[in-house]
Amino acid sequence: xxxxxxxxxxxxxxxxxxxxxxxxxxxxxxxxxxxxxxxxxxxxxxxxxxxxxxxxxxxxxxxxxxxxxxxxxxxxxxxxxxxxxxxxxxxxxxxxxxxxxxxxxxxxxxxxxxxxxxxxxxxxxxxxxxxxxxxxxxxxxxxxxxxxxxxxxxxxxxxxxxxxxxxxxxxxxxxxxxxxxxxxxxxxxxxxxxxxxxxxxxxxxxxxxxxxxxxxxxxxxxxxxxxxxxxxxxxxxxxxxxxxxxxxxxxxxxxxxxxxxxxxxxxxxxxxxxxxxxxxxxxxxxxxxxxxxxxxxxxxxxxxxxxxxxxxxxxxxxxxxxxxxxxxxxxxxxxxxxxxxxxxxxxxxxxxxxxxxxxxx
Length: 361
Known about the structure:
The chain is 68% helix and 0% strand.
């Protein structure tokens, strides 16, 4: 890796590795759920076992996702602080891929894993599940559990347990738009002030935003991403911050071993993961031979498809361990993610960009 660039120059270029970071994070979530859903020895995956009870690899990967989301969503607002255009771009990124995923996986689950089979497609329940899920359950705070499953399908289990973070993501987009629309300072300075204020409020005054946005861990990581974006022209994330984070984690472990009989803390593990993600993302790690991967983001589809695929595999496979479950899931999910990006997500984004550009012109 070359000497670190500023975060702003890394993000602005087409020569960074943030899509690689997202891809690795999505695969780590699949690994975590393969540990939970394998039918031989359900339990923590090997990486999570090293961090328990303070963290697991799934939560750590989601934390990295939300930090990067705060970074790039704030960049989107700063580039074009218009409520309507911001909303259209965010809908185009989340909804088309999610709608196709829900329609496809729900149809297969209904036809193959319910008593009614294909006749169940005539019922309103699966269509209500698809529409409400694709619309992020209309961004309400409390989603009734009955909306997350379809009676009789896969034993009444939640059909896509990963989507709770997508719903939180959507609510955070709303908050970015509201914060930006309320600006009473120059925009970059305003976003900096608000991200700091809300991060402090998240821990000191838990009632703040409790009725809508409250998910302290993810909200705090998202706000840290917002703050980093406002400082991006000065921030350089290279090997040094990552090494310092590792040293801090090691020093911190001595106290926690004495007090809690465990070496790790949530803050320390997250600090190491975040500095590593920003270091790798800011680098030119992929090089020119793999530059096409920088333009394609398969992580979202991997994330939203893997849970229902895993549930269906559990229903049809004999008892399998974590690595067989992981391999079988990825064998199906990786082609689906390529299809989703190239045939659904990227075309939807390109179409919206063309429409917005023509309207602005």
